[in-house]
Amino acid sequence: MSSLFLRNVRLVPVRTAAPAEPVSLRVVDGAIISLGHIEPEPGDHVIDGDGRWAIPGLWDQHVHFTQWAQTFTRLDVSGTTDPSAAVEIVRAHLGSVRGGDWLFGFGFLLTDWSRQPTVAELDAATGDRPVVLTSGDAHTGWLNSAALRALDAPLVDGPLTEVPWFELMARVVERNAQQDGEVAVRNAVAGAAARGVVGVADFEFATPLHAWPERIASGADALWVRSAVYPDHLDAVIDSGLHTGAPLTPDGLVTLGPLKIISDGSLNTRTAFCHAPYAGGTGHGVQNHDRAELTELLRRATSHGLRAAVHAIGDAAAHEALAAFAASGAAGSIEHAQLITSQDIATMASLELIASVQPGHLLDDRDVTAQLWPDRTDRCFALRSMLDAGVRVRFGSDAPVAPLDPWHTMAAAVHRSADAREPWNPAESVTPAEALAASVDGASTVRVGQRADLVLLDRDPLEATDDSAGAAALLRAVRVEATVRGGRLTHVATGLGD
């Protein structure tokens, strides 16, 4: 039996009321068994909270965890305004290092460039060394000829987007992992715990039955993980008799997540599928699966006990995904829901689907939205409208597209601005309490009977402030003092006394 005693902590109200005075709580074998004015028992590991604030453990409901970890070792080509600038960063890096390993870069955005990049210009700077540059929204890969040949991919003249890129992405991630080892993943797991994260929904392009169980076995076990499956692996999962929620490790730390379907593209690649064309053109984006295909995938998943998570960024993609959910009777989520009509918000609520949204994207996409969707900016990241309609909203980061940092995510949802400008569509802002509730995987105020997923904070994240800017600043300033996952301490800040 393992036991933990947290003395003198203040409970932050999450959905339900909290005691006004500090309390103590006792955890045994991963569950909270008593709470109030209590004393520890012999053998308890005692931590004095000294008035710190306690919340349920935080979750990131949408990550690509391996790619997030790999960004810390990839060459940064973000902020470039032309393909030539990215090429010069690559050229300078290659000139400063020796060896013939692959070079992986990350961060460019096609919408920041006035022209399309070419394979030839990347070849001229890189020669025979394989180079792969992934866009900041992860929907584009710019590879040189050496990398294309090494991956047995057709030689092309320019970057790969959407399906052709996704067909290569798993191999790129695997090759990057072979070069980096698992150190980057271990560091990313520790970094998540240090921000109060106890669990993630991982949408990585990988074989879902193996990657995380192997990590857990090697000791990278600070997180609960729901490991999603993509259509390419659906047959193997069905043949294994698994369903959403089935344990993939003996301790249940890793479970099978939903079937992930990418139904359209992204804003920055102009591939998010929209009702109206993009500004200055006739293109509506890309529909990777039409309604019939989506419906069949959802029916198949549902018949074998899998929930579904359908990526839909454009409003037409969301509409088609909702129609497929309705026709199939599937349960699950719309991932992103970045642009959506009020009618479809109502439909999402009636179907009892979750809106799995990434508020951090609104900070990055504000300017490009004004450029490409100037006639529909008022319907972007409609968080307030979804909550008011009764949609269950869950927050995530989509790391590596945005940082795996729930405090950054919550601040973006509350204030909707990353600079001195006024908030973007402030009517769609949420309160700090609502942002926190969307970040704890449906949990309520810490109570007896809950699984012991807890975070101790140096301050009250819901403290009253003068305005949304102040509330966002407070959220970003929160310091995580300790994280407890299933009764086990996974992070303890320096200075937290026993």
Topology:
Elements lengths: L2 E9 L11 E6 L2 E6 L8 E4 L4 E4 L1 E6 L1 H6 L4 E2 L6 H14 L6 E6 L10 H8 L4 E5 L4 E4 L1 H6 L9 E2 H19 L2 H12 L2 E6 L8 H7 L6 E6 L4 H6 L14 E9 L28 H13 L4 E5 L2 H14 L3 E5 L5 H9 L3 E4 L2 H13 L10 H6 L3 E4 L10 H10 L16 H6 L16 E4 L10 H10 L2 E6 L2 E5 L6
Parallel strand pairs: 1-4, 1-5, 6-12, 7-8, 8-9, 12-13, 13-14, 14-15, 15-16, 16-17, 17-18
Antiparallel strand pairs: 1-2, 2-3, 5-19, 9-10, 10-11, 19-20, 20-21
Helix pairs in contact: 2-3, 9-10, 12-14, 14-16
Give structural attributes.
21 strands, 3 domains, Urease, subunit C, domain 1, 8-stranded parallel beta sheet, Diaminopimelate Epimerase, Chain A, domain 1, TIM Barrel, 16 helices, 8-stranded mixed beta sheet, 22% strand, alpha/beta, 498 residues, single chain
* Helix coverage percent: 25-40%
What is the name of the CATH class of the largest domain?
A: Alpha Beta
Query: What amount of the residues lies in strands?
Result: 15-25%
Structural class: alpha/beta
Whole-angstrom Rg = 23 Å
Task: Please tell me what the overall shape is.
Answer: globular
CATH superfamily label of the largest domain: Metal-dependent hydrolases
Mean pLDDT: 95
Please outline the major beta sheet.
Answer: 8 strands, mixed
- Domain tally: 3
CATH level-3 fold name of the largest domain? TIM Barrel
Number of DSSP helical runs: 16
Distance between the termini: 20 Å
Low-confidence runs? none
What is the CATH architecture term of the largest domain? Alpha-Beta Barrel
Number of strands: 21
